[in-house]
Amino acid sequence: MRTQVAIIGAGPAGLTLGRLLERAGIDAIVVERRSADYVLGRIRAGVLEQSSVDLLRELGVGARMDAEGIVHEGAEMSFDGDMLRIDFADLVGRRVMVYGQTEVTHDLMDARSASGALTIYEAENVALHDIDGPNPKVTFEKNGETVEIHCDVIAGCDGFHGVSRASVPERSIKAFERIYPFGWLGVMVDQPPVAEELIYAHHERGFALCSMRSHTRSRYYVQVDASETVANWSDSRFWDELRARLNPEIAEQLRTGPSIEKSIAPLRSFVVEPLRFGKLFLAGDAAHIVPPTGAKGLNMAIHDVKVLGEALVEFFADKSSAGIDAYSARVLANTWRTERFSWWMTQLLHTFPESGDFGRRIQRADFDYLSASRIAQQSLAENYTGFRLSAG
Ligand code: FAD
Ligand code: DHB
Q: What pLDDT digit, counting tens, does each position of 25-84 carry?
């Protein structure tokens, strides 16, 4: 087989890039390790920045998002039960859209199958070859046979555990990492959300988040120790813990029910530099991870592939390498900006047993400053709704 761009991974990054290239008349094949159903079964992010919404609309996959997504003009913060509303619309004139990652992926998959673009699911032992040379190649096994894809460029969109980043020689890549000593236990429930907007809550028992997928489906998270397992958390234990971390009046409004999904996500901050190795370009979680507190992982992935897609269009259609040469630096500048914000939200809202009473007083001071200062609130709102360098 031959294509212009071999895309590794059919998550949001790979599928959005595929769509962007398809619309520009550039040939691409997506190779995914899992089945389509498995990919759709993963419950992950829930909040889209305006720029992500705009891109999905531009790519002709925004109709269901516009019909079913919920526009939010603000979010609530809670610190030991004290509430503070951050009014994005008033502070920075921007909004976000609550629409699940699963739905974004679904819409992109549907568009891809409607147009006949090729996605190979359940590809085993995917391997990258000659990424430094003029003729890179991707191989994998499918139904017991080895398949080869010859291509001009490889887009590594295969997430944190993928093969793309692992194919780069260690001496050519530098990783920056912080692992947090806790994770998020998430529960999905078919009950109306506890409040109209998201609530990000700090409590001495730990962080909690009240989110949603629709007016009838809610998503809740509590911070748990990194060593915790889902088996330790019955539904009733989860609801008791969540209530204990919320403002009592809000806790009273909570509508509980049997969980329809329950999982634990570890928290880490991670960046690699650079993002290009010859003909291989890394994008999305393959290149960087943020703790989920700022709702940024999915939005970063979409931003990366917008920059990469435009650079590849320049490369194939205009025969210019300017865009692909600038890709790594452009994406990294925004990556570090977003890493900083996600780290800041995480350290404000979680409990860090090792930082002791001093650490808790600093967190309280940070929250009090936020409550008292419109400028501090503007900074949060600017970052939460999506802050980018104009060049990227
Ligand atoms: P992914 O979605 O990981 O997609 C990569 C794809 O590549 C997958 O389909 C995978 O199966 C495939 N793949 C992997 N290895 C190979 C291989 N060798 N060959 C071929 N294909 C391969 N962000 C938030 O903003 N809020 C959240 O609440 C949130 N929760 C999360 C929970 C978890 C458990 C995880 C892992 C992430 C979470 N994120 C969250 C982050 C967000 O979901 C990611 O940033 C987003 O999925 C990144 O998209 P991606 O396409 O880069 O990577
Ligand atoms: C959701 C996840 C997040 O990490 C976040 O900051 C907000 C919402 C969610 O899954 O709904």
A: 999 999 999 999 999 999 999 999 999 999 999 999 999 999 999 999 999 999 999 999
The CATH number covering residue 286 comes to 3.50.50.60
Q: Using a 6 Å cutoff on CB, does residue 98 contact ligand 2?
A: no
Whether residue 200 lies in the annotated active site? yes
- Quote the domain boundaries for residue 297: 5-69+98-177+268-350
Cα gap 211→118, rounded to integer Å = 35
Catalytic member of 99, 220, 221, 384:
384
Q: What is the ipTM, given to two decimal places? A: 0.96
Asked whether residue 206 is domain-assigned, the answer is: no
Query: For 285, what's the count of Cα atoms within 13 Å in the CB-facing half-sphere?
Result: 22
Instruction: Report if residue 205 sits inside a domain.
Output: no
Q: Which residues contact 215 (CB under 8 A, 6 or more apart)?
A: 70, 192, 193
Residue 195 resides in a domain: no
Nearest CA to ligand 2 atom 8: 46
Ligand 2 pocket: which of 197, 219, 380 to mutate (most atoms <8 Å of CB)?
219
Helix or strand holding residue 270 (H, E): strand 259-273
Nearest CA to 122 among 34, 213, 214?
A: 34
Residue 296 beta carbon below 6 angstroms from any ligand 2 atom: no
